[in-house]
Structure formats: C-alpha cells, structure tokens
Write a structure and sequence with these properties.
It comes from Paenibacillus albilobatus. InterPro entries: ASHA1/2-like_C, START-like_dom_sf. Belongs to the AHA1 family. This is ATPase. There is one protein chain. The chain is of the alpha+beta class. It has a single domain, classed as Alpha-D-Glucose-1,6-Bisphosphate, Chain A, domain 4 (2-Layer Sandwich). It is built from four helices and seven strands; from the N terminus they run βααββββββαα. It has a seven-stranded antiparallel sheet. It is globular, with a radius of gyration of 15 Å. The N and C termini lie far apart (44 Å).
Length: 169
C-alpha cells in the first residue's frame, strides 16, 4: 500500500460553518486560535509547537476536566491555504515521539486527516476524511470498533469550533 493511502475504513465528516473560509483555515493553523477550541468540551489544549508547513509539526497536550493529560502531534503533509490541510495525527510524549494511545494498545499509531474547505455565500463547508495508515489488522479493527466514538468526538470538537468562530466575527 502506498504511504498515506487511506484504507477502506475511512472516516468522512462534513459540517457547514457560518464563517468565511479564510477565517476557518486561520483558526486551524494559528496556535493563538487553535488552543481555544480544539478538543472535546471542557478540555484545555496547551500548544507546545505549531509549525504549519509540509513536514512541520504540531505538538500539544490536552487536559481533561479531571486533570488527565494526553500528548499528541500532527505532522503536516500538505498545506494549501485556505482550502486544504493534510496531516498525520498520532499520540506522543512531551518530546513528540510517537507512542501508543493510553486507552487502547491496538489504536493505530498514525491516522491521516484530510481537511478541505469550500466557501459559498460566506459559509464554509468543512470536509474531514481520514483513517489509519500503515496499520496492522488489529489497529484497523480497533479504529473501526471505535468509529462511533471518534465521530462523536469530532462532532463535539466541531461544536467548539462553531462557537469559537461565532465569537471571532
């Protein structure tokens, strides 16, 4: 399989935001904005590094309302402002080394996310597709088994984004 080819258990989500595409792209790529909305409701995000360019790295930690901290990273593959952002997402340690997910030893080490933005009449349609890459059968099965939870997590994150965009206009 070609590297970064999304496998057949791809996730596909679409959401329309009442905001111009340039603003939606900016809040995905500017750490001052990204830290204020990314993640589930009630979680906080600390951005350690955000270098949005092909080969660049995002490194950050999320803290749950109970104080549990998880680190993660994105390695940017494609950055085409303001219409496309492609990154490989992984759990990591504080230094950015890829680690296994704390909640499932079979969770895929790498998940590609392909974000596309289109604008019509001042509204932006965000499409997010992706899934495990370079994954074992066990990792693909773990992702598939948790697909409803992953989708629900993104719905909550997109709700946070929607609220944040409203505050920026």
């Amino acid at each position: 399989m070609a590297e970064n080819q999304v496998e057949n258990n791809e996730l596909l989500l679409t959401r329309v935001f009442n905001a111009p595409r340039e603003l939606v792209f900016k809040v995905w790529t500017d750490p001052e904005h990204f830290c204020k909305w990314w993640g589930p409701k009630g979680f906080s995000l600390n951005v350690s590094k955000m270098d949005v360019r092909p080969g660049g790295l995002f490194l950050g930690s999320q803290t749950s309302p109970e104080g549990h901290v998880m680190w993660g990273k994105f390695v940017y593959q494609e950055v085409n402002a303001p219409e496309k952002l492609v990154y490989v997402q992984s759990f990591s340690d504080e230094e950015g080394n890829t680690v296994r997910a704390p909640f499932n030893p079979n969770w895929p080490l790498e998940i590609i996310n392909i974000l596309t933005l289109t604008e019509e009449n001042g509204k932006t349609t965000l499409t997010l597709s992706g899934g495990p890459i370079n994954a074992t059968e066990e990792e693909r099965a773990a992702f598939e088994g948790m697909r409803p939870m992953v989708q629900q997590g993104f719905v909550g994150t997109f709700d946070e984004l929607d609220n944040y965009l409203a505050s920026q206009q």
